[in-house]
Amino acid sequence: MQSNVARILITEEQLQLRVGELAREIVTSYGTIDGHLTILTILNGSIIFLADLIRRMPVMMRLELVTVSSYPGRATESVGARLTREVSADVRGQDVLVVDDILDTGKTLRLVRQELLQRGPRSLKIATLLRKPSKAPPDVAVDFVGFDIEDEFVVGYGLDYDNHYRNLPYIAVLSKEAM
User: Fold this and answer.
1) Is 21 strand, coil or helix?
2) How would DSSP label each residue in 100-111?
């Protein structure tokens, strides 16, 4: 598996350091939370990021999960976002933090944000581990960003190619031969 990695873009140590910083930024931004924080994560790519992030957030929270499909099979470019597991939480009057793995075309976050706003949250913020500034649309505002990266297809730390490589402890670019 590691022989398919062309290069490591973000090391395990860099990830852990930045995730800790993000947790502190998020907690500080909410101030005193009165138990109404709902963290909604977009599966499957953000699950490792989510686990590391929330363990560093000493606040009362509820977790909700949504699944969006954008990169079926061996696709390396988004074919359009569609919900495959709906938002089931009652978020009316809640502070909601959406946690996602990567902001690329913005289709996934735009779709989830629209779904949530229709449900009347008190506030809605977005945290993403990675952002590709050259592709991220200006209408998809992100409140917390782990790392800005170039427009490359990356795997590891939850991100996949054909549902593989999620368990790499770092963010990497795959070799051309592996794709």
Assistant:
1) helix
2) EEEESSSHHHHH
First to last CA, the chain: 12
The Cα–Cα gap between 68 and 71 comes to: 9
Q: What span, in angstroms and rounded, lies between the C-alpha atoms of 144 and 123? A: 14
Q: Identify the architecture of domain 13-149 in CATH.
A: 3-Layer(aba) Sandwich (3.40)
pLDDT per residue, tens digit, the chain (179 aa), is 677 899 999 999 999 999 999 999 999 998 866 667 999 999 889 999 999 999 999 988 999 998 876 555 555 555 555 555 567 778 899 999 999 999 998 988 998 998 899 999 999 999 999 999 999 999 999 999 999 999 999 999 999 998 899 999 999 999 888 87
Nearest of 34, 85, 70 to residue 153 by alpha carbon: 70
Domains in the chain: boundaries: 13-149
| Residues 108-137 as b or e (16 or more Cβ within 10 Å = b) | bbebbbebbeeeebeebbbbbbbbbeeebe
Six-digit token pair at 154?
A: 């990356």
pTM of the full structure: 0.88
| CB-based contact 147:103 (threshold 8 Å) | no
| Residue numbers annotated as active site | 104
DSSP-assigned letters across all residues of 134-151: TT--TTS--SEEEEE--S
